[in-house]
């Protein structure tokens, strides 16, 4: 069973932190007027680069990814820049929101109809890799994809059957983010421990029964429960292919989640479902300050911030990064490879597909355009480009540094398996849905969760 080992994650985080510190005083790049001779020379260089890497024959690539509007816009701009550099390559984008995305893409991958270049979750390598047959071995294209920019440890995590199935884009972890304006309106402090979290629930209910300090869906509840268990008991959720927690301990976690509903800290899942929103960042209650907190990946928080700041009914709301809520004597939470780029084994143009990946992760123009829309880069060159030009969302940088320095636990590669996290038929959705609806108690929920996760681990 492949895992993100803590020494690997923290080692990468240390490299990032050291690099950030070293470049903190660097000056951003300035725009200068280029002479006609310089322009001509640049054009010749681009032409030479293209001839060295492509045949010049027309090539068509499909590139698929999920995300929010800002990621879509930035990636489309990067595609335009790539095709301007390589005019013989046409790139067709395919993108959407996360809901239903994995189900659709898994069918494409297993059916041999996947896009040439894919943004994938780390666990897709195991879940849909078919023993190393689904994705191209990117080591075969190291002449156009600079793999030296990634640590050997991070690349090792993306291998299957000794083949490099993908290259990591970034590392990520979950943090608490808050609508400070909503907390100020209610007149209560942003939570830092369980006691203050529960008091916030009481205060929000007294202010407005439709207001909650935190909102979490089914999968969010699973991650939050594991955060609670790790904080309290100090164990990885899974070790060596087996759940590390007893049924009684998992029941404790289920009681914790139920308690958050009972204390008006989080809305029931029926309430969230009734909001009729595709995702929480598009939920009117989040946008207008009724839901005042989220527990989210550092690489995904920007879409929540943008949605909140774009509120028409409540303009000028303040979105802030919070402290890790103290729930025990340990630092709960885990880090993981947030996402990676892979090339389909069915691609007719894998070399050009690898060139597109290199452009997005290592090329100055591509890196500047995409910035931190997919988190803080794992690529050494990509990170340096952002630092030298003082680019990137400050909140994402702050959050990534914070989570890498705090979270101490490892993530099992099957934690995000589709059998567990698929909506609505995954184990997490079924168990937490029934628990929230009162169809099962915490003991039964713990038993059902353990069985479902164990079955997945053993398959």
UniProtKB/TrEMBL annotation:
Keywords: Signal. This is ABC transporter substrate-binding protein. Pfam families: SBP_bac_1 (PF01547). Residues 30-55 have a biased composition (Low complexity). It comes from Lacrimispora algidixylanolytica. It comes from the Bacteria. Residues 1-24 form the signal peptide. Residues 27-55 are annotated as: Disordered. PROSITE patterns: PROKAR_LIPOPROTEIN.
């Amino acid at each position: 069973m492949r895992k993100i080992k803590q020494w690997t994650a923290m080692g990468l985080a240390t490299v990032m932190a050291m690099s950030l510190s070293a470049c903190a005083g660097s000056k951003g790049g300035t725009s200068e007027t280029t002479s006609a001779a310089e322009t001509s020379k640049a054009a010749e260089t681009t032409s030479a680069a293209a001839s060295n890497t492509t045949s010049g024959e027309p090539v068509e690539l499909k590139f698929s990814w999920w995300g929010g509007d800002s990621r879509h816009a930035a990636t489309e701009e990067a595609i335009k820049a790539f095709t301007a550099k390589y005019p013989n390559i046409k790139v067709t984008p395919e993108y959407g929101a996360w809901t239903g995305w994995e189900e659709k893409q898994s069918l494409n991958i297993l059916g041999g109809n996947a896009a040439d270049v894919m943004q994938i979750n780390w666990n897709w390598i195991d879940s849909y890799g078919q023993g190393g047959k689904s994705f191209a071995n990117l080591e075969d294209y190291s002449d156009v994809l600079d793999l030296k920019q990634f640590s050997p440890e991070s690349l090792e995590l993306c291998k299957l059957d000794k083949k490099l199935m993908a290259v990591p884009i970034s590392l990520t972890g979950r943090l608490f983010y808050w609508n400070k304006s909503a907390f100020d309106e209610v007149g209560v402090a942003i939570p830092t421990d369980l006691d203050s979290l529960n008091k916030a629930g009481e205060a929000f209910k007294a202010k407005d029964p439709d207001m909650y300090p935190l909102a979490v869906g089914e999968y969010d509840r699973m991650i939050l429960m594991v955060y609670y268990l790790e904080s309290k008991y100090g164990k990885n959720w899974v070790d060596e292919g087996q759940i590390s927690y007893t049924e009684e301990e998992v029941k404790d976690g289920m009681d914790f989640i139920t308690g958050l509903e009972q204390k008006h800290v989080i809305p029931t899942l029926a309430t969230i479902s009734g909001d009729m929103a595709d995702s929480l960042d598009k939920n009117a209650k989040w946008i207008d300050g009724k839901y005042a907190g989220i527990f989210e990946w550092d690489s995904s928080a920007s879409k929540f911030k943008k949605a909140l700041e774009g509120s028409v009914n409540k303009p000028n709301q303040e979105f802030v990064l919070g402290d890790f809520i103290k729930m025990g004597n340990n630092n709960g939470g885990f880090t993981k490879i947030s996402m990676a780029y892979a090339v389909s084994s069915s691609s007719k143009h894998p070399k050009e597909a690898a060139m597109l990946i290199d452009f997005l992760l290592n090329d100055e123009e591509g890196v500047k355009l995409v910035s931190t829309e997919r988190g803080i880069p794992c690529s050494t060159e990509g990170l340096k480009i952002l630092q030298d030009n003082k680019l990137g969302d400050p909140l994402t940088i702050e959050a990534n540094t914070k989570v890498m320095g705090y979270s101490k636990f490892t993530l099992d590669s099957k934690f995000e398996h589709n059998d567990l996290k698929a909506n609505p038929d995954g184990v997490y959705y079924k168990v937490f849905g029934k628990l929230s609806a009162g169809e099962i108690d915490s003991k039964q929920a713990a038993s059902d969760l353990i069985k479902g996760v164990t079955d997945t681990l053993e398959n």
